[in-house]
Design goal:
Length: 239
């Protein structure tokens, strides 16, 4: 059943966030801070590992060589310009603010940050992209099932320190992964291992950026870089 992986992932985020909220009230501030730092460090290296996998290859001589660097640069630059023009991150924050008002959580100072951060972490990674594509092309949802387990743990930790805004990230996840799954069916003739590798690499770089923001404070507008993921698709279809 196509789309089952995303549905299970959606439910895992809801459940993990709910469990995290259950523990939130019993944690002191210093525990909240160390949890955010731990999540940031883990996110940083998850992104770094995925990016290096896409950017490095083993040559016939047994040495590592860089690859795909120019496409990565062009994707980030062009995608960043598009995202900045559209002000995607601002729209994400505004959406978080509206959800905050809707849920009457005005006293929750971390609601918007929790929503935006969790959304970026669980949506733009390699597993979200590749898993959704596989689900759409072959109905293979095993990667998304594995991602659901990881997301359950991640959002549980996030929610325990950043509040209910984390739980609402399940909504964009459902839309995002569902869209990729359906799109994979429509453009299946262009979907090969090379394109999937490019998408995974760029997604991992964005995950690295989220990790930087978690550890060092909000410095990178990762939300505005999201269109970078689409650039390789456009390149493969038209060029």
């Amino acid at each position: 059943m196509r789309g089952l992986g995303t549905l299970v992932n959606f439910l895992a985020v809801i459940a993990g966030s709910g469990l995290g909220l259950f523990f939130k009230s019993g944690l002191k501030q210093r525990f909240h801070e160390i949890l955010i730092q731990a999540c940031g460090l883990a996110t940083l290296f998850i992104g770094l590992g995925g990016a290096m996998t896409g950017l490095m290859k083993l040559s016939e001589k047994g040495t590592f060589e860089t690859t795909n660097t120019m496409l990565l640069v062009f994707s980030l630059v062009i995608g960043g310009l598009i995202g900045e023009l559209l002000q995607l991150e601002t729209h994400m924050e505004n959406l978080g603010g509206k959800l905050k008002s809707l849920l009457k959580a005005n006293n929750d100072s971390q609601f918007v940050d929790g929503f935006v951060t969790a959304t970026l972490v669980i949506c733009v990674g390699a597993m979200a992209i590749v898993g959704s594509i596989r689900d759409g092309l072959t109905g293979d949802y095993t990667m998304l099932f594995a991602k659901a387990i990881l997301d359950f743990i991640i959002v549980m930790v996030f929610a325990s320190s950043m509040g209910i805004g984390v739980m609402l990230s399940a909504i964009p996840l459902l839309i995002y992964q569902g869209t990729i799954t359906m799109s994979a069916v429509l453009i299946s003739q262009y979907m090969d291992d090379t394109l999937i590798s490019y998408l995974s690499c760029i997604g991992s770089v964005l995950i690295f950026g989220v990790g930087v923001n978690l550890i060092f404070g909000k410095k990178l507008r990762v939300g505005n870089l999201l269109p970078a993921i689409l650039i390789p698709v456009v390149y493969f279809i038209f060029f």
